[in-house]
């Protein structure tokens, strides 16, 4: 039995939100990593 279109749209919206949240968290992690690298290089 396949889900009705309303459930599918809700699931797609939740996946899109989760994907966006993952990109934001990943971007922040990369930014923190780069800042620590620069602090180490420039602090010498």
Automatic annotation (TrEMBL):
Sorted UniProt keywords: Membrane, Transmembrane, Transmembrane helix
Transmembrane residue ranges: 21-42
Protein name: Uncharacterized protein
